[in-house]
Amino acid sequence: MKTMSGFTIVELLIVVTVMGILGAVVFVAFNGVQDGARATKVISAVDMIEKGLRMYVAEHGHYPIPTDITTPHNNTFLCVQPTSGGWPLADNLSASQCSSPSSDPDASQYAYSQAVITALKTKLGSIPDTSDIVISDGGHSLRGVMYTYMSGPVAELGYPQGLAYLMYYMRGEQTCGRGVGGVDTFGSLTATLCMITLD
What we know:
Number of domains: 1
C-alpha cells in the first residue's frame, strides 16, 4: 500500500513567510533604485538648465525675465517645461503646474513663462523634460525643476542682474545632489527642497 507524502501546514506557512519577506525586500530595494534614478535625472536637468541660464546672463547682463507673468510679490516661481504645451496631466497636476493642490498658497505662484523658455532655448536648443519626476501622496504633488526670479527691491543688494534660483524636490529626507536642502511637509508628503542660488 502506497503512503501519500506532501507538505505539512507548518512547512507551507514557512515557505509563504519566506516568500513574503523576500517580496518586501525586493519592493524596498526597487523603490530605492527608482528614487536614485529620479534624483540622477533631475540633477542632470538642473545642471543643463543652470548652464543655459549662466550663458544667457553672460550675454545679456541679467537672467531671463518672465515678462509675460505678473505676480503680486515681485518674484516669480516658474515650472521649467520644455514646450509651451506644458506637461502631461498627472497626479492632480494640470499641464502648467509643478505644485498642487491649487489651495496650497505656494502652488498658485507656480506658472509657465514662454519668455523664459524662449530665452533658455536660445542657449540650450532644447530643455530637458522632467515631467516624470513626480512626488505625490495622492493629495499633494510636486514635479520637475522650478526657476525663481526676483528683481527690484525684493532682490538682494549686489545682484544687478536680478536674483535667480533653481529649485527641485526629492522624496523624503535626502541630501541634495546640488544646492542647499531643507525638509518641507505637504499634508502627509515629506520632501527635501533643494535650492541653487544663481549669482
